[in-house]
Amino acid sequence: MDFTKQVYEATSFFPKSELYGLTSQLRRAAVSIACNIAEGCGRRSQSELRQFVHIALGSAQECETLILLAYRLGFVQQEAQDALASSIRSVSRMLHGLLRAIDVRIRQSEH
Questions:
Q1: Rounded CA gap, 111 and 78, in Å?
Q2: For the chain, which domains are there?
Q3: What average pLDDT score do residues 46-74 get?
Q4: Taking the complete model, does pTM exceed 0.90, yes or no?
């Protein structure tokens, strides 16, 4: 959620011509991370949760790419790009940790 807020703040400075392009794409990808985790938590099994966390991880990778593109297009300055990139790497690490924890729970339930 914090990363998504950070994305919304950064994209508010993108050119208005990008409102339905890069701005929208990056915001949707950022929102998708938290929403997929929430949806996965509402499912019945750890396997389903695992699937949604993988989708969230894909959205995180999409954000990382879009942040780099926004920087290369000059929509964000180096400092903002660095902050966003650092945040999304942190989110990705947390998602990988969550996947490991889910895998442990799945293995434990099989025994």
A1: 50
A2: 2-110 (1.20.1440.60)
A3: 97
A4: yes
